[in-house]
Amino acid sequence: MKYVKLKDILTLEQGKEAVYKDDGKYEVFGAGANSTGRCDEYNNDGNIIITRQASVGKVYWRRYPHWVQAASCIIKVDEDEVFLPFLYHWLKSKEWLLTQLKVPSMIPTLDEYKFLNLEMPLPPYLVQVHTAATIDYLDVLNLASRELIQEQIDDFTNLKEITQNKLLTFGKDEDNENKF
Questions:
Q1: How confident is the model at residue 168 (pLDDT cuts 50, 70, 90)?
Q2: Which residues contact 117 (CB under 8 A, 6 or more apart)?
Q3: How distant, in Å, are the alpha carbons of 42, 68, 73, 107, 171 from that of 17?
Q4: Are the C-beta atoms of residues 81 and 125 closer than 8 Å to each other?
Q5: How far apart are the C-alpha atoms of 4 and 7, rounded to whole Å?
Q6: pTM score, two decimals?
Q7: 121, 115 contact by CB (below 8 A)
């Protein structure tokens, strides 16, 4: 297995401050998961971003044009060598570590030197594609399972409430409801 330092396969491009417009065409993102507004331009057309200020080390991948503020960096890669979904999944799996790569200060910032010197496995391109597709498939199954489990929890909660009501009122809840 080939291992590479991140600095050998990617570069970090710091985001820039946006000019906000209420009716802007593109969403603006800072160091969080939620949009902070809109603007008329974009500086990222689907690359991975990593937060570099405040909530350091969070990894996001929005697959549409948007504006990235200075609180985050856009990750640029040679897509002939690195399959972007593979890199995204690897970075997400290391997010616990990335959030610790801070330069301590009033507003913590990402230690880019430490980040760029992290080593990651870089299998052949087709293995990257297969690995990312497998993880994507597992994500879909996980989401479907969570939805099914939530439906079952909701059904059980309803059954418990109906049963509890019947047991505690001995079947006379309808009569008592009309007296209040």
A1: confident
A2: 5, 6, 7
A3: 11, 8, 12, 17, 64
A4: yes
A5: 8
A6: 0.80
A7: no
